Amino acid sequence: MKYKIFNYIAVFFSLAVVATSCVDDEDLTQLDPNNDAVDSFWKTDQDALEGINAVYGSLLTDGTYMRSTPLLLDAKADDSRTNSPWPSMYNVGHFNSNVADAAIYGWAFETYYQGIYRANQVLTNVPDIEFEDAALKNRILGQAYFLRGLYLFHAVNMFKNVPIPLDVEVYHPQKSNEEGWAQVIADFKTASELLPNSYVGITGLDAGQKGRATKGAALGYLGKAYLFTKDFTNARTTFKQVIDLGVYSLVSNYRDNFTTANENNLESLFEVQFSRDAGGVDLGWGGAPASGWGKTSARAITYAPRAFGWTDVQPTWALFNEFQEEKTKTGDVDPRLDATIFYNKPGTKLYGRDFAAFYAASPGDLNDLFCRKYQNSDGEFADEYDWRSGINERLLRYADILLMYAETLNETGDTSGAYTYIQMVRNRVNLPDLSVTKPGMNQDQMREQIGHERFLEFPLEGHRFDDIRRWGWLQNPTKLAWLKARDAEFNSYTAGREYFPIPQLEMDNNPGTVQNDSY
């Protein structure tokens, strides 16, 4: 099913090309709906579907989930470290992104707004198209609202005060962070009202297509936006709506969330679809799409163990050590450790090679830690140097919904109720009953416990630094000192550097834009 979707969701095209396995050459010559001179587009339901497919396309280039966005989300946190020889990447992890060099963060900013512009094209044009299937029209509009909300979520979350384009005009002034979050919430709320629970069992051009945004995805991100703005009551209600859908559950094997096995599973609310078997073999670095672009990820090579890729990102010892703090019911180490980190453990293999034997001549590497999540390391591939990982990026998992719901219960006075939802996540990895090992926690103690639970459930998934920032730890001298002791990269932090700078090109082209503090 994963590969079938690329017959419909073509993502590297001139904003419209949808390629199937059975087409003629002339069928691949499609009109570009991003071109104002093309008056014959936006006439049919097929045009509308191709238009929304284009919006998904912005998820797969270098600025977003091919490489840059995971780096921006991961590198600043205390679960990761970077000693990349590339200054732009090194600086991300050391709170020192350069206003004069917008590599990585600037690419992300640009691509978010490319995606927003494409979504606005759909929202501007599709309402005027006559559909035979009104439900299909609603689904397409719902996806546009969801994707615009998602791109804007990233822009507001990482760049603070940003433009909020709601139409296809060129100029849009910078808005406040509060205005940005309000629009994110509005988009996800509208999306949740228009989208189906699933594309299985529906009729229409998009029938059965996994990978498209659903009601659960929209509600999940809506709850997350409420949580990030400390509206705990609305967040609690929204997360409960996701749970009550009865659609999602935790998969039994934690590691299935980070390999090509069991993609688009019952734990996944939304994931970016990558494939080695769809499209060409060229890399989508950004800009105008080319027909030879593939639909693969560069995360694997960027995070890969030494000699199997670039090793630009590695786990911290703080993460490794925290996994040792609590044993399973059978006295074993938390199994999420081995799903997350490669280290010198007897029997460990990476890319078909024995860890200890492979690094025997290099004591530094033999005693180091490397990323295992999102690596094609089970022996099928020799390394990641082809830059072509097909592993889907899981943006939102049901485990996250459960732990965020537990957090909102705690923040709204139901600390005892939080135990149930935390334990659901712990049960998968056979950890003891928290209500027995730590009964009767007060609200502050539960906050600390949730921080620990999230740290071990989501390392290297782009959540930890968001948690650190939204919990106010960087403004808390005690917490900041604790972070510095765990991860020396926090010694480079200065107030305001929790956000990235507004790219200089945006400053130059958008009069009146004010740079973020400390840049």
Verbal overview:
The chain has 519 residues and is mainly alpha-helical. The protein has helices spanning 45-57, 68-74, 87-93, 105-125, 134-159, 177-194, 215-228, 232-244, 299-303, 317-322, 336-340, 355-358, 363-366, 398-411, 415-428, 434-437, 443-457, 464-470, 477-486, 504-509, and strands at 80-81, 268-272, 275-279, 294-295, 314-315, 341-342, 349-350, 353-354, 370-371, 393-397. Strands 1-5 form a two-stranded antiparallel ribbon. The protein has a two-stranded antiparallel sheet with strand order 2-10. A hairpin with a 2-residue loop joins strand 7 and strand 8. The protein is globular, with a radius of gyration of 22 Å. Residues 1-30 have low confidence and may be disordered.
Number of strand segments: 10
String of helices and strands: HHEHHHHHHEEEHEHHEEEHHEEHHHHHHH
Task: Give the helix tally.
Answer: 20
Largest sheet: 2 strands, antiparallel
Radius of gyration: 22 Å
- Rounded mean pLDDT is 92
Structural category is mainly alpha
Strand order of the largest sheet: 1-5
Uncertain spans, ≥5 residues at pLDDT below 50? Answer: 1-30
Helical fraction equals 40-55%
**Gross geometry:** globular
Features:
single chain; 519 residues; mainly alpha; 41% helix
